[in-house]
Design goal:
43% of the residues lie in helices and 14% in strands. By secondary structure, the chain is of the alpha/beta class. The longest helix is centred in the C-terminal third of the chain and has 22 residues, at 307-328. Residues 250-254, 263-268 and 282-286 have low confidence and may be disordered. This is Nitronate monooxygenase.
Length: 329
């Protein structure tokens, strides 16, 4: 299919302006290889790997499997005690780009700039976008209200134009894309591309169990709820019977600790650790106690497919929508 040229495709040398978003436990080396071979790019959370040895092995596997670009997501706040180790590995092995989340990217940008590694920063408002732009970020990822995982508070049709007007660096949209029509909409709003995750969970290459993948087929946008139980920060999950049983709010002790200035840092780290363990059990084990992270775009997931099939369908819909617009004009 015909290439879609934007500043993002030129920056990364890809055919289509799509980043397969980094997803905790879901993203694998196989997924990133499949993404690159399908004309897009993918990123993997460094936290998906327990040790630096495993992390390095995955990067080497991706490099061996494709010549296409790939990225790594780094959690930049204090809950990630391994951040500097992960960053040093990314710099040493020269990943193509880094996506920063939940914290100041200052150290990451300072390390990556001299060696030519691009840095894209998750933002939810103009204030933080201007901060990371001044620090030297290469692009901002506009995390909007429809995003999966840690969603932002603002709808895409408000957030993207406001960031495009306020910033001189490119804006990538994250959230609210499950088909080619929605992808075209985000680019028409001024985004140079999209970061899309949830529709890729239900793929053959996805690193989670079939129950999780099938849940993305069976459930829809109306089944997505926000919870603070996983990281202390509101996060989107599928409203399974178990999620309904345990509730989406932190208990009184967790809330109290998170409000205490002295204990807040440690409470957040503990919540994050417990939440990640809960997700890990759900992603890899068949259990009633399932907590599956996903966004509203699972509404458009109708079957478990390959990464390439998801990409091809998205691009075909994008081109069809573009042709309709041309005919009307």
């Amino acid at each position: 299919m015909e290439k879609i040229s934007t500043p993002l495709t030129e920056m990364l040398g890809i055919k289509y302006p799509i980043i397969m978003a980094p997803m905790f436990l879901v993203s694998t080396a196989e997924m990133l290889i499949a993404a690159a071979e399908s004309g897009i790019t993918g990123a993997v959370p460094a936290l998906n790997y327990r040790t630096d040895k495993d992390f390095r092995a995955a990067i080497h596997q991706i490099r061996k499997g494709t010549k296409g670009p790939f990225g790594v997501n780094l959690i930049a706040n204090k809950s990630n005690v391994r951040m500097m180790e992960q960053l040093n590995t990314c710099v040493e092995l020269r990943v193509d780009y880094i996506i920063t989340s939940l914290g100041s990217p200052r150290k990451i940008i300072e390390k990556c700039k001299p060696v030519g590694i691009k840095v894209f920063c998750d933002v939810v408002d103009i204030k933080y976008a201007k901060i990371v732009e001044e620090l030297g970020a290469d692009a901002v990822i506009a995390v909007n209200k429809e995003a999966g995982g840690h969603a932002g508070p603002t709808p895409a049709n408000e957030l993207i134009p406001s960031l495009v007007e306020a910033c001189t660096i490119p804006v990538i949209s994250a959230g609210g894309v499950g088909n080619g029509n929605q992808m075209k909409n985000k680019i028409d709003l001024g985004a140079v591309g999209i970061s899309m995750g949830s529709p890729f969970i239900a793929t053959n290459e996805g690193g989670v169990n079939n129950a999780y993948k099938q849940a993305c087929v069976d459930y829809g946008a109306k089944d997505i709820v926000m919870t603070t139980k996983l990281s202390g920060t509101p996060c989107t999950v599928i409203n399974t019977p178990y999620m309904q049983e345990i509730g989406t709010k932190q208990n009184w002790l967790e809330s109290l600790l998170n409000k205490n200035k002295t204990l807040k840092k440690f409470a957040k780290m503990l919540t994050f650790y417990k939440g990640m363990k809960m997700l890990e059990k759900s992603a890899f084990g068949a259990t009633y106690k399932s907590v599956w992270c996903a966004g509203p775009s699972i509404e458009y997931v109708k079957s478990i497919r390959s990464v390439k099939e998801v990409v091809d369908s998205l691009i075909e819909e994008y081109h069809l929508e573009s042709e309709k617009v041309e005919v009307k004009s």
